[in-house]
Amino acid sequence: MAEDERPVPGQRYGRLGQKRPRSAFFWEAVDPKWHELFQAYVERGMYRREVLDQKTRELCAVAALTVLNQQGALGRHMLSALDYGASQDEVIEVVLQMSVYGGFPATQAALNTFRATLAEVGEPAQRKG
Amino acid sequence: MAEDERPVPGQRYGRLGQKRPRSAFFWEAVDPKWHELFQAYVERGMYRREVLDQKTRELCAVAALTVLNQQGALGRHMLSALDYGASQDEVIEVVLQMSVYGGFPATQAALNTFRATLAEVGEPAQRKG
Amino acid sequence: MAEDERPVPGQRYGRLGQKRPRSAFFWEAVDPKWHELFQAYVERGMYRREVLDQKTRELCAVAALTVLNQQGALGRHMLSALDYGASQDEVIEVVLQMSVYGGFPATQAALNTFRATLAEVGEPAQRKG
Amino acid sequence: MAEDERPVPGQRYGRLGQKRPRSAFFWEAVDPKWHELFQAYVERGMYRREVLDQKTRELCAVAALTVLNQQGALGRHMLSALDYGASQDEVIEVVLQMSVYGGFPATQAALNTFRATLAEVGEPAQRKG
Amino acid sequence: MAEDERPVPGQRYGRLGQKRPRSAFFWEAVDPKWHELFQAYVERGMYRREVLDQKTRELCAVAALTVLNQQGALGRHMLSALDYGASQDEVIEVVLQMSVYGGFPATQAALNTFRATLAEVGEPAQRKG
Amino acid sequence: MAEDERPVPGQRYGRLGQKRPRSAFFWEAVDPKWHELFQAYVERGMYRREVLDQKTRELCAVAALTVLNQQGALGRHMLSALDYGASQDEVIEVVLQMSVYGGFPATQAALNTFRATLAEVGEPAQRKG
Fold first, then answer.
1. Range(s) of the domain holding residue D69
2. Could you give the number of structural domains in chain B?
3. Which chain D residues are closer than 8 Å to B65 by Cβ?
4. What CATH number corresponds to the domain at position C109?
5. SS (H, E, C) E44-99
């Protein structure tokens, strides 16, 4: 990913997520030195390696968090996937595909999280049914 | 994905996987009627919906199977990702990213699986170190 | 299971579950074509194979969902187990047995789900204590 | 379950399992006092409560261990299910059903364990394919 | 642990937990005979073996429950760790370390549980940030 | 932990582990830049924060890896716990305690890993039975 595709600092989850507190702020309060370690590994490390584009990274995050049943982080990464250009259909498709590897209850819980997260940030759900 | 991008029947995992027995053959032997249900849902259903390209689907599968610690299915989907055009670096990058969501032991076990799977099908590992 | 033991379409979870929205309705809204794939695999496929009676199937679902910590699907299958003739004691017994394979916290979370689900559908809990 | 349905001490997993070392023997060597605690909770406690018959208990164990990806304990409980009167088809059916709750890789790994366990005790697999 | 270090019966989680219902009371109501089995294994068995001191036991419980995503039991054991002399910093440190083995979302969910549990019992959080 | 308690670089898992290849060597070969990120977070970051002593950290690692069913990393951290002064009894006690939170199959698989790991490095098991 070229530098200019990357959201400027402080605007990650910009389009949607700016309406929502970033989780890392709480971590900063818990332990600032650890927060620095976390940011060096994740934010400035893993997410800037450029082997994969950010949209693919976020779809893979949605995949993993769906089967791990980690709803809090899942909602944030669903927003981030939208921020990096994924459509709602693409996010849902990853969630539906996860039924194959992690079972239908994981898919259903993730769909509920997507619906609740979109509602929380005031983004209309684009349903087909 | 356009029809002509899709491997012809019997050649899935073609480039690498043809040297390796397809898991579904065993399932067919266990219960042919159930195997038909499985194929209708997964092979002819989920994997032909075309909302996501097949390479992205396989990278998402690698993501989920890494954090689920399901090494058998993981090895097959790593080959499938290569078949659909992912580079070894891209497969490894998904595995490294999974340390963020599922921990370092999951990443390490998946790297071992990738190395063993490449060796099994006679594909040289493209290391950087 | 003989045909006449099976609830008529639309009445699954009839005795208790009719007071509760079926999860599948939401899936239908999300993506009708995928909902059809799901129903073909699960509702018309897996749950009609008749190798196991439906009560045993539902107790096995309660077992799996307890150790998977999937509370939403667990509550629905607990109701379904009651629908197919399991007693409250039998549902609880499966949950208690799961402490052996999945640990006591999984058992306790599932007991809380059973209590909340019974309350939601207005079914009195038959306690012994 | 009536008393006379229960295998006599030392013959649990009698028909098949007697050809196989009981896992508990190792636990006894590790720490005899803890082994006594374990037996009081599991063997003389949980497995003798008689709310569920032993065949149903073992099928529920197979369900849980399949989705937990615990292959060692799974193989032993598959044998125990056969000991208590389950057919090979019923054991397989529980494993196939688990694809709904825990995903297809869990089902496939469990089928491999069933095949390997039957081979280990010299019991022919009754395949349909 | 010497006998006099052990909380008297009914005062477990004394300093903080006495403001909070003990989970076991509910289990007693569900099935008194099973509750007795549970207490013999866990309360009078596992937690009185004295190979490890109680503070280390509770920190190990916090470790396991963080990566298992079992928030209910996690909150209770966090209080118990404080009861047995762990500082808030030590509890948080175990949770931060768990990011290595179980991923950052597990750590974050556990930090949220710690904050909510402290608030519930009226204990001020000792933040550094 | 004071500086002088910490093993010198290259001697981590010194007493036992030096007979065993360090996992990180493979990671270095896979991607040296990522290996540097990993070391900054885990080796030079998380494991040098000194809020907990190293023995407690390693026992917490054993706890987490037991319930996560990650046998490869578990074996290495069991050795590391011994390196930092834990007795074999203390390592086993953590594993036995994990039956409470993660179930008996996780405990049993971890005991098998401990036995195999001790054998691999030529350390006699100190059994009580």
1. 53-120
2. 1
3. 105
4. 1.20.1290.10
5. CCHHHCCCCCHHHHHHHHHHHHHHHCCHHHHHHHHHHHHHCCCCHHHHHHHHHHHH
Q: Would F116 be classed as within a structural domain?
A: yes
Work out the number of other CB atoms within 10 angstroms of the CB of residue E63.
Answer: 32
Note the ipTM here: 0.85
How far, in Å, CA of E122 to CA of E125, rounded? 9
What pLDDT is recorded for position F11? 45
User: Model confidence over E22-67: pLDDT tens digits?
Assistant: 555 577 788 999 999 999 999 899 999 989 999 999 999 999 999 9
* Residue F46 sits at the chain B interface (C-beta within 8 Å): no
Confidence at residue A127, expressed as pLDDT on a 0 to 100 scale: 65
Which pairs from E46-50 meet CB under 8 Å and 24+ separation? E46/D37, E46/F96, E46/F97, E46/F99, E46/F100, E48/E6, E49/D33, E49/D34, E49/F93, E49/F96, E50/E1
Q: Would you say residue B48 lies in a domain?
A: no
Q: What is the pLDDT of residues F91-105, one digit of tens each?
A: 999 999 999 999 999
For residue E24, give the nearest of C118, F100, C88 by alpha carbon.
F100
CA torsion sign, C105 to B108 to A38 to B97?
negative
Residue F31 falls inside a structural domain: no
CB of B48 less than 8 A from some CB of C: no
Strand, coil or helix: A21: coil
How far is Cα of residue F128 from the mean position of the Cα atoms in its chain? Answer: 23
Q: Which tokens in the block code for residue A122?
A: 């005031």
F98 in contact with E, Cβ within 8 Å: yes
- Please list, residue by residue across C27-60, b when 16 or more beta carbons sit within 10 angstroms of its beta carbon and e when fewer do: bbebbeebbebbeebbeebbbebebbebbbbbbb
Place of tokens 């003798």: D48
CB contacts, 8 Å: E35 with chain D: none
- Give yes or no for C102 touching F (CB within 8 A): yes
Residue of E nearest to A37 (CA): E96
Closest by CA position to E57, among listed F67, F66, F56: F56
Q: Give the chain F residue nearest B125 (alpha carbons).
A: F30
Contact A67 B67 (CB under 8 A): yes
Burial-class residue E88 by CB neighbours within 10 Å (0-12, 13-18, 19+). middle
pTM: 0.90
Give contacts of A67 with chain D, Cβ < 8 Å. Answer: 103
The residues, ordered by sequence, that sit 6+ positions from A80 with a Cβ below 8 Å of its Cβ are A12, A13, A17, A58, A61
How many CB pairs (< 8 A) connect A and F? 22
In a domain, A43, yes or no: no
Lookup: tokens for E116: 């909510």
Check if E105 contacts B (Cβ < 8 Å). yes
Count of residues in chain C: 129
Look up tokens 């040297």; give the residue: B19
